[in-house]
Amino acid sequence: MQNNPSEVEIVQLFSEIGRSLKKTMRKSFECNGLTMPQSMVMSTLIKRGEMKISEISSELHLSNSTISGIIDRLEKHDLVIRTRSEQDRRIVYVKVSPKYVDFHREFHHQAEKDLQKILSRATPEDMRKILEGLTALKKILGQ
């Protein structure tokens, strides 16, 4: 690698790191019985709270029928709760269940431990460089 990495190299590294992290997360979710599409739905619900199926579809760029099928499977495992609108019975709202809130908390705790384990393989010098680079990136993104 050159002394002055180009923007293209940095973007490529981001892409590679993103794929690696996504692969690791996918394995973790699958070990806990969730597919990647199910985990995407759950992540959206955790971030946004109760949503209509159509809103989830729009957010994830998937059809209503696809989201409805995913929600069916999540509901069978008590990970989501569906409720119908009092004003319009055609509208269905979905929210995470208390069971999933507990799972989510434990999953993220385990994910942090897994990342710490991966980072423990780095030398102190590598850790210093990673910290400096990420700190600089955070500053640049904040501008």
From TrEMBL:
Matching Gene3D superfamilies: Winged helix-like DNA-binding domain superfamily/Winged helix DNA-binding domain
Cited InterPro entries: ArsR-like_HTH, HTH_MarR-typ, MarR/SlyA-like, WH-like_DNA-bd_sf, WH_DNA-bd_sf
Pfam families: MarR
A biological process term (GO) from this entry: response to stress
Matches recorded under SMART domains: HTH_MARR
Domain HTH marR-type: start-end pairs: 7-139
Molecular function terms from GO: DNA-binding transcription factor activity
Protein name (Swiss-Prot/TrEMBL): MarR family transcriptional regulator
Species whose genome carries this gene: Dehalobacter restrictus
